[in-house]
Design brief:
The protein is built from eight helices and 18 strands. It is an alpha+beta fold.
Length: about 325
């Protein structure tokens, strides 16, 4: 189903990752809380707000059983490479802005850092966290792709090349002149007790990873963001077919990891007044104001993730 207005085009599409280029800023999708599927815990409601400045999520979880259930709740961030030749979304800002509240009280989740190395030309990732630790890498070192505090790649290269860890040596490039492509991932976690036959409210917020480019090419980005004819007409009217744009991704599909469909789901998307916005959505979209759009679903099972594009226009009618 498609819903149109002067500047939006909606449909049903798939998520993809923006590539990093010299004139662009990369991004990777973030998402919400998750853990392995539990037959007793339902994500009863989800109220999600997305803008370029902040993502806020308000969940109500329901324990369907007559016993307390304690689980480890996970919030995994994306895997980010330790290369900074191109601009990238502000990863450090996300880490500093991440906050969690449970039933109205702030909590401090544990942070775990995992490291990975690309094993071969097929880009297969191998978890090398324990090997990195045995080679003398501190958590601060392993966090470098996110904190971006050390731009001296050779320091890490020498430490990895000189390490005698057998598992590590198996995955390092055979050519000593080849750059070692390694990455890290941050995972937040906390123990959560869901009281019997009761609701547990979990809220979190963070600054999203926003990327973009100096020029839009609708023919290349059409499928990712469901740019229909109305949206393209809006670009032509504003003479913004190749305007600068920003983009972000959000992982929705982990919402299907719970006992039942999400009974009440609401997504509010906010853009700036001087922007056009497009993304893929299968249901109805309601325009709430000049800058906000809202989607409401009942018994929602998310099957697709979100990629959202914000296209700057120098001026537009509100």
């Amino acid at each position: 189903m498609r819903i149109f207005d002067a500047v939006l085009g909606f449909g049903f599409g798939v998520v993809s990752m923006a590539l990093i280029a010299n004139d662009s800023t990369g991004y990777v999708a973030t998402g919400g809380v998750q853990y392995l599927k539990n037959k007793d815990i339902q994500m009863f409601s989800e109220d999600l707000f997305i803008s370029k400045k902040m993502i806020k999520v308000d969940y109500q979880f329901k324990n369907l059983s007559n016993k307390d259930v304690t689980e480890t709740v996970l919030f995994p961030l994306p895997i980010v490479e330790n290369f900074f030749e191109s601009d990238f979304a502000d990863t450090e800002k996300l880490l500093k802005s991440f906050k969690v509240q449970v039933n109205g009280k702030s909590i401090q989740p544990a942070m775990h850092v995992r490291t990975f190395i690309y094993k071969d030309e097929n880009k297969a990732l191998v978890d090398m966290t324990e090997s990195f630790k045995q080679c003398g890498f501190t958590e601060k070192d392993m966090l470098n792709p996110w904190s971006r505090q050390d731009y001296e790649y050779e320091t890490f290269e020498v430490k990895l090349r000189n390490c005698k860890n057998a598992a590590l040596q198996k995955v390092l490039p055979k050519d000593p002149n080849e750059v070692i492509s390694w990455s890290s991932q941050v995972i937040y976690s906390w123990k959560q007790t869901f009281k019997a036959n009761a609701f547990t409210r979990v809220q979190h917020q963070y600054a999203p990873l926003v990327g973009g480019s100096v020029a839009l090419y609708p023919s290349d980005d059409n499928q990712t963001y469901c740019m229909d004819q109305n949206f393209k007409a809006g670009l032509r009217k504003a003479k913004s077919q190749h305007a600068p744009f920003q983009a972000l991704g959000y992982i929705l599909k982990t919402g299907a990891n719970w006992a039942k469909p999400i009974q009440d789901f609401k997504l509010t998307l906010e853009r700036d007044a001087n922007e056009l916005v497009s993304f893929c959505w299968a249901g109805k979209v309601k325009k709430m104001s000049a800058t906000q759009f809202q989607m409401i679903e009942k018994n929602f099972v998310p099957k697709q993730d979100l990629d959202i594009i914000f296209v700057y226009v120098p001026s537009r009618e509100q």
